[in-house]
Input
Amino acid sequence: MKPTENKTKAKWFSQRLHREVTMARWGSFGQPVLLFPTAGGDCEEIERFLMIKALAPLIDGGKIKVYSCDSVAGQAMVTQEGSPGHRQWVLNQFHQYIRHELVPAVRKDCGVDNIELFSAGASIGAFHAAAVVCRFPDVFSKAIAMSGTFDIRRFMSADQFGDDFWVSSPLHFVPTLSGPHLEKLRSRYVLMPSGEGKAEDINESWAMARVLGKAGIPNRVDSWGKETPHDWMTWRDMLPRYLSQLVG
Output
């Protein structure tokens, strides 16, 4: 059996999110990569859109193990679940679930208590990929945030934003960081590739880069040009290339 065929799923009730959550994993060995879905996708979205097939050489070569989860916060935004304050609470709790529930599950699966993860994702998934590195640099070492949508206030349909939002949005909380958290984050890396074609807005990535750069956090924006659209075909080209560079 090829490692790409070694797929597992796990479900549990999240005390933080107050609902059932699902995590999927592909591969047997290698660097763990948490790949966030887009918008309101589930943990198997990346398989349906052929990203696992695109990553097969890295997975089957034992370079990476890929994990994915349901986009609970994205689903709340897409369906306009509850009040704006509730959706902001879900966003913060989603990140807490990642750090305190999903990461321990990944580390148990890898058999290494302190293994560091890469994060990756596209669009809203890119927001989460960058956010977890910035919020939890003790756990996540690198992010590949493709075609990022980094200012998500417009998806909240809110007139007011509370602490749950501000502590979850790296555009807004990174300038407030100091001390050991910031020092650790300065040893991490956020890569932001983006096209400039249909439905793309590379200015979102540049805005994020300015915030990170001002704080001394290593980052890079890569433009894929005006012919490159905001679409899975783009991300299937991007992610294997950058992961190959990062894992050697």
Summary: The first helix runs from residue 45 to 48. The chain has one domain: 3-247. The domain at 3-247 is CATH 3.40.50.1820 (Rossmann fold). The radius of gyration is 17 Å.
